[in-house]
Amino acid sequence: MIKVEKMKILSQKIIAENIYEIELQGPLVNEISMPGQFVHIKVNKANDPLLRRPISISSYDKKRQTMTLIYRATGAGTIELAQQTGEINVMGPLGSGFPVEDVKGETAVLIGGGIGVPPLYECSKQLKARGKKVIHILGFESAEAVFYEDKFKELGPVYITTADGSYGTKGFVTDAAVQFNIKADIFYACGPVPMLNAVEKLFESIPGYISMEQRMGCGIGACLACVCAVNGPELYKKVCTDGPVFAKGELVYG
Amino acid sequence: MDKLRISLPGLELKNPIMPASGCFGFGREYCQFYDLSLLGSIMVKATTLEQRLGNPVPRVAETSSGMLNAIGLQNPGLEKVMNTELPWLAGYDLPVIANVAGSMVEDYVEVAKNISRAGNVHALELNISCPNVKEGGIAFGTDPEVARELTAKVKAVSEVPVYVKLSPNVADIKTMALAVEKGGADGLTMINTLVGMRLDHRTGKPVIANKTGGLSGPAIKPVALRMVYEVSQVTDLPIIAMGGISSAWDVIDFISAGASAAAVGTANFVNPFVCKEIIDELPAILDELEVEHIHDLKGRSWKVGETADYRA
């Protein structure tokens, strides 16, 4: 069930260049049903910025009623969010996340680009808890932008790429996948659209799921702002409610 | 509760609060937050004869205290709205105002004729002011003569009263109001969004794929308020006001300006409970203002002598 509640900000810290990690606490966490869901945050009480900000859930702990979000503070809304303390108005959980139940095969590869990396963390934890072997390929702009390498390493092998070559393998996540000959039975990806397109092509022979991003209005499927083109009779789906996670082959890359 | 009960052409409403068209879908998303029967009415998403897929993305961009949208009238089409959405809404004690859109006069007439026969549709809202579609929409809303003719043709086939949604993107909105009144309109809804634009700082290009979009939210409230103030003084048609309403006091402002009811749009995106909260808060505000009924405040912004009375 979707809740709107004031959640307690337990901590807020910078973990890479312009990248913040915020930990929130409240009963809303009990409603999270799968990794890859997101919340819609009103970053302040003012009319400016007006709209909520969709941010994916990076990890959660139902016992403690806490969840961790990781966001990039480069726009007006997220810069405002980075300054908040005390309580914050959160709507969620929203959307349909990464399916981790009844996954066939032994090995999953999780591929993230930049601020698309966070939701893969909970996904990887839950896959590992279900006995899967998890491999991670995480792409960033530069060494300064890299985060969560150690956390992912606790779960399985990690390959880091940077666009400028300042850390890990120079190039894109798909370059590393080819270079290190990564084999898996299923993939999970989140990142910029060109990356998702390249990942779907590279891992053509295995099933997979990708998580999309789009400018959003309401976050609950009413305003029709965040649609994406899909194969099939409906032609468009809503990122906020039909997604953000879609099965491989569902999306039409323009 | 009788403080809020109102009677308008075709509409016997528990209260004067309703979600604005395009900001609430057909209610399915918001029924998970509260019982839709609490609402005075619901202005459902614009319906066209055939299904519309809408504009390319990005379709929205935020601006200071507002947002631009160019959804492009995406809707499942008349048949699906008649067979699926309206019957679903009939499960609620909720009179529906159906927003009718089209590219040609014949489209409007066909949609109006059919949708006005749905049992729970108590009024039509003629959408002659959508700024985000290439054909139809605003083309009908900026020429008084065209607007009058379209209103008359829709009026001739509609089984229920017809409210015409006015565009603020005109030189003189009073002329448009009087033109549709002459065409037989039973009421007005106003205002639709203001055409605006936002550019990407780095590329210098428009952020929205449609280039321009309709501005809504608190940023446009002063414009909407002024227009309701002007129009309500030249016509006796009831006005359902919208434009940046996000609180009970905003509703009081619009009633004071001369509106009979108020619709809430963009604020639903920020706070899904906003319509219910406004309905809950209004009675206490009326007590504070020492009036028996919300319509005791109607038009007090311009009615001679009334402002002084209420200040006393």
TrEMBL record, chain A:
What this protein is reported to do is described as:
Responsible for channeling the electrons from the oxidation of dihydroorotate from the FMN redox center in the PyrD type B subunit to the ultimate electron acceptor NAD(+).
Q: Which PROSITE patterns match?
A: FAD_FR
Q: Superkingdom, according to UniProt?
A: Bacteria
| Family statement | Belongs to the PyrK family.
* Protein name per the record: Dihydroorotate dehydrogenase B (NAD(+)), electron transfer subunit
**UniProt GO MF annotations:** 2 iron, 2 sulfur cluster binding; electron transfer activity; flavin adenine dinucleotide binding; metal ion binding; oxidoreductase activity
- What CDD domains does the annotation carry? DHOD_e_trans
| Co-factor requirement | FAD; [2Fe-2S] cluster
Quaternary structure and partners: Heterotetramer of 2 PyrK and 2 PyrD type B subunits.
UniProtKB/TrEMBL annotation, chain B:
Name its GO BP terms in alphabetical order.
'de novo' pyrimidine nucleobase biosynthetic process; 'de novo' UMP biosynthetic process
Q: What is its EC number?
A: 1.3.-.-
**Cofactor descriptive note:** Binds 1 FMN per subunit.
- State the reactions this protein catalyses: (S)-dihydroorotate + NAD(+) = orotate + NADH + H(+); (S)-dihydroorotate + A = orotate + AH2
Tell me which SUPFAM superfamilies the record gives.
FMN-linked oxidoreductases (SSF51395)
Instruction: Provide GO CC annotations from the record.
Output: cytoplasm
Residues bound to FMN are 21, 45-46, 99, 127, 165, 191, 217, 243-244, 265-266
Pfam families, alphabetized: DHO_dh
Q: Which InterPro entries match?
A: Aldolase_TIM, DHO_dehydrogenase, DHOD_1B, Dihydroorotate_DH_1, Dihydroorotate_DH_1_2, Dihydroorotate_DH_cat, Dihydroorotate_DH_CS, Dihydroorotate_DH_I
Alphabetically, the GO molecular function entries are: dihydroorotate dehydrogenase (NAD+) activity
Q: Is Oxidoreductase included in the keywords of this UniProt record?
A: yes
Cofactor(s) in the UniProt record = FMN
Say which domain of life the source belongs to: Bacteria
Dihydroorotate dehydrogenase catalytic domain mapped to chain residues: 4-286
Q: List ligand-binding residues for substrate.
A: 45, 69-73, 127, 192-193
Q: So, what pathway does this thing act in? A: Pyrimidine metabolism; UMP biosynthesis via de novo pathway; orotate from (S)-dihydroorotate (NAD(+) route): step 1/1
Q: Where in the cell is it found?
A: Cytoplasm
Q: Which UniProt keywords apply?
A: Cytoplasm, Flavoprotein, FMN, NAD, Oxidoreductase, Pyrimidine biosynthesis
The residues responsible for catalysis, as annotated, are: 130 (nucleophile)
Question: Would the keyword Cytoplasm be found if you checked this record's keyword annotation?
Answer: yes
Role of this protein: Catalyzes the conversion of dihydroorotate to orotate with NAD(+) as electron acceptor.
Subunit details: Heterotetramer of 2 PyrK and 2 PyrD type B subunits.
What does the sequence similarity comment in the record state about its family?
Belongs to the dihydroorotate dehydrogenase family. Type 1 subfamily.
In Swiss-Prot or TrEMBL terms, this protein is called Dihydroorotate dehydrogenase
UniProt organism field: Jeotgalibacillus alimentarius
- Specify the taxonomic lineage: Bacteria, Bacillati, Bacillota, Bacilli, Bacillales
